[in-house]
Amino acid sequence: MSDRSDDARCPLCDNSRSQAFHEQVVPAGSGQRRSFRRCDTCSLVFVPRRFHLSRADERAVYEQHENDPADAGYRRFLSRLFEPLRARISDGATGLDFGCGPGPTLSAMFRESGVQCAEYDPFFANDDGVFDARYDFIASSEVFEHLAQPAAVLDRLLAVLKPHGWLGVMTKRVSTPSAFADWHYVRDPTHVSFFSDATFMWIGERFGMTVHIVSADVVLLQSKPYR
After folding, report:
1. Given 101, 152, 169, 176, which residue has the most CB atoms within 10 angstroms?
2. Separation between Cα atoms, residue 113 and residue 110, nearest integer Å
3. pLDDT score of 1
4. HEC readout, the chain
């Protein structure tokens, strides 16, 4: 639990200046409120740490997910990230499915297409050994919205991404405050970081990456040669 004085500090850029963006009553009718703030620097909308679930409660939510590698509909959903990322990597590339969940599917799709893909998940595949290798690509589907410490995660991922490597992120992006208030993404208590186009452009500038906005929920970032 964070002290209230830390509520305004951004977990992405560490700026201490942020503005109130939205408040949500949780659960409905309880009178308890979860607040959302928007960073003045990187535009990340985030939930202060004191409103985050415990690790056990967070895992309990994820265990309710039914991500079946044999589910054709789930594969179609993942193809929104898989297809543009696969088109940009060569045969024989090696990658990492970051946040693979209890039913790794994106990694299976990459392997089926002829490229190697390791798996990592802090709850279901917590093997830090995967970070001893370096990768041509890292794919992360519906994960970034769960990140309590996005700066630390980006540091860790980019440290193992090769020069010219690709980071593919699928997460729905923030638009307007009015749309945010009615957004289904806000109702998930494990969602604590909300990215916008401006946030991804800030990430590209901060980490020296080229940003490609592919669709409403897919962004590809390519590392520079000197990384």
Report:
1. 169
2. 5
3. 36
4. CCCHHHCCCCCCCCCCCEEEEEEEECCCCCCCEEEEEEECCCCCEECCHHHCCCHHHHHHHHCCCCCCCCCHHHHHHHHHHHHHHHCCCCCCCEEEEECCCCCCCHHHHHHHCCCEEEEEECCCECCHHHHHCCEEEEEEECCHHHCCCHHHHHHHHHHCEEEEEEEEEECCCCCCHHHHHCCHHHHCCCCCEECCHHHHHHHHHHHCEEEEECCCCEEEEEECCCC
- How far is it between the farthest Cα atoms of the chain? 54
| Alpha-carbon dihedral angle through residues 133, 137, 141, 146, given to the nearest 10 degrees | 50
Is a pLDDT exceeding 50 seen at residue 59? yes
Residue 2 has pLDDT above 50, yes or no: no
- With contact defined as beta carbons under 8 Å apart, do 100 and 140 qualify? no
Task: Point out the least confidently predicted range of 45-49, 130-134, 221-225.
Answer: 221-225
Q: How confident is the model at residue 3 (pLDDT cuts 50, 70, 90)?
A: very low
What are the structure tokens assigned to 124, written together? 């279901």
Mean pLDDT of the chain: 92
Please state whether the predicted TM-score (pTM) of the whole model is above 0.90: yes
Single-letter amino acid code for the residue at 222: Q
